[in-house]
């Protein structure tokens, strides 16, 4: 029998990308919480290059990097397609997943950095939101790929949920709803999807931790 | 009849990734050289988000980001497979392509930056080479994926060729051959592949340009 394990960390949007995809496909898995301040021998053995979560272990074989894991899930358990069937539409989806991978780190930077670095992070986040609004969510679609949630929406999970909590912890609102109407509407649609709604880290648990990180950063 | 166009720039390893893949698949295409100091309306229209080359235009539809273009080429023209068939091996390949995407920018940074930034770039490049040697090229394989060139090798094109030219232009040798025997052997294998050998930018043309860049950077 095949065994599916996920090494994750409760606060990480990258862990949640994988959790959402597994839930959408209806795959039973064992979740193993990692203490990132004291990484387990299993994590170090599975991801010797980056030593980072998430790692999916499928029948003993480790797969690292959340966007690579999602492609793997799509290939192994294709029952609920996470990518469009048409190759051109798949390329567009992969373009936006890469964009999310490249730009999302600004969001976690915001909760960790000094004033000056925070200013850069805020500028980068704002540029990211503008790009999503102007180019990513055009044509009145409910989700990035149309009427159904896909890998692209999951890739932007940090924008949909984590950003708001980090803004509140920082006492700083990066954007107003009226500036990004398409983005705001997508955030609502995303958070209403059952597998998302039922699988998000607890805001009350996140909040003090994010505030503490900022206090440590001295801002 | 389907039309294939490539917007590229002769110095860019990212352009060459796409050129190699198209050549390997035997796809006829029109190459359009971009002047990056005066970007064409076609480039700005095709890649409004990043405004960067390469862009593949297939029957009028633009695809951006070289690693996304390679996945698209693999799906549209699968005659010479650029990725392994096995889903787990594909995941490993995608892990290394992402690694190449994330780490290669240090190589071009080395030819542009001030002394201090150059020091960081050199450190990052050395780390990248160590990781490739220690984790990427294990098991005595000729290429990353085995006996045949694949998308992963193409993704590391900047390591195989551009790095050496940039080192010479900078008068700085980052690594010695004996430190990275597997990597050196891979570089040789890579440069002996016909489609690679016949499609590389001219070293004599690159050299003065790279030296000028460094003079402008004041190092």
TrEMBL record, chains A, B:
<dbReference type="Pfam" id="PF00043">
    <property type="entry name" value="GST_C"/>
</dbReference>
<comment type="similarity">
    <text>Belongs to the GST superfamily. Tau family.</text>
</comment>
<dbReference type="GO" id="GO:0009407">
    <property type="term" value="P:toxin catabolic process"/>
</dbReference>
<dbReference type="InterPro" id="IPR036249">
    <property type="entry name" value="Thioredoxin-like_sf"/>
</dbReference>
<protein>
    <recommendedName>
        <fullName>glutathione transferase</fullName>
        <ecNumber>2.5.1.18</ecNumber>
    </recommendedName>
</protein>
<dbReference type="InterPro" id="IPR010987">
    <property type="entry name" value="Glutathione-S-Trfase_C-like"/>
</dbReference>
<dbReference type="GO" id="GO:0005829">
    <property type="term" value="C:cytosol"/>
</dbReference>
<keyword id="KW-0808">Transferase</keyword>
<keyword id="KW-0963">Cytoplasm</keyword>
<dbReference type="InterPro" id="IPR045074">
    <property type="entry name" value="GST_C_Tau"/>
</dbReference>
<feature type="domain" description="GST N-terminal">
    <location>
        <begin position="2"/>
        <end position="81"/>
    </location>
</feature>
<dbReference type="InterPro" id="IPR036282">
    <property type="entry name" value="Glutathione-S-Trfase_C_sf"/>
</dbReference>
<dbReference type="InterPro" id="IPR045073">
    <property type="entry name" value="Omega/Tau-like"/>
</dbReference>
<dbReference type="GO" id="GO:0006749">
    <property type="term" value="P:glutathione metabolic process"/>
</dbReference>
<dbReference type="GO" id="GO:0004364">
    <property type="term" value="F:glutathione transferase activity"/>
</dbReference>
<dbReference type="InterPro" id="IPR004045">
    <property type="entry name" value="Glutathione_S-Trfase_N"/>
</dbReference>
<dbReference type="InterPro" id="IPR004046">
    <property type="entry name" value="GST_C"/>
</dbReference>
<dbReference type="Pfam" id="PF02798">
    <property type="entry name" value="GST_N"/>
</dbReference>
<feature type="domain" description="GST C-terminal">
    <location>
        <begin position="86"/>
        <end position="209"/>
    </location>
</feature>
<keyword id="KW-0216">Detoxification</keyword>
<dbReference type="InterPro" id="IPR040079">
    <property type="entry name" value="Glutathione_S-Trfase"/>
</dbReference>
């Amino acid at each position: 029998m095949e065994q599916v394990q996920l090494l994750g960390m409760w606060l990480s949007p990258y862990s949640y990308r994988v959790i959402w995809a597994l839930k959408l496909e209806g795959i039973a898995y064992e979740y193993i919480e990692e203490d990132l301040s004291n990484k387990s021998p299993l994590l170090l053995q599975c991801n010797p290059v980056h030593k980072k979560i998430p790692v999916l272990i499928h029948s003993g074989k480790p797969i690292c990097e959340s966007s690579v894991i999602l492609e793997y899930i799509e290939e192994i358990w294709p029952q609920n397609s996470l990518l469009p069937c048409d190759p051109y539409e798949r390329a567009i989806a992969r373009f936006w997943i890469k964009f999310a991978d490249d730009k999302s780190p600004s969001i976690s930077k915001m909760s960790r950095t000094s004033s000056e670095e925070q200013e850069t992070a805020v500028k980068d986040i704002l540029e990211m939101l503008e790009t999503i609004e102007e180019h990513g969510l055009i044509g009145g679609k409910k989700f990035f790929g149309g009427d159904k949630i896909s890998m692209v929406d999951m890739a932007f999970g940090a924008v949909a949920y984590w950003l708001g909590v980090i803004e509140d912890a920082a006492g700083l609102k990066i954007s107003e709803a009226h500036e990004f109407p398409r983005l705001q509407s997508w955030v609502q649609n995303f958070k209403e999807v059952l597998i998302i709604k039922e699988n998000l880290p607890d805001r009350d648990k996140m909040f003090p931790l994010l505030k503490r990180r900022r206090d440590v950063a001295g801002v």
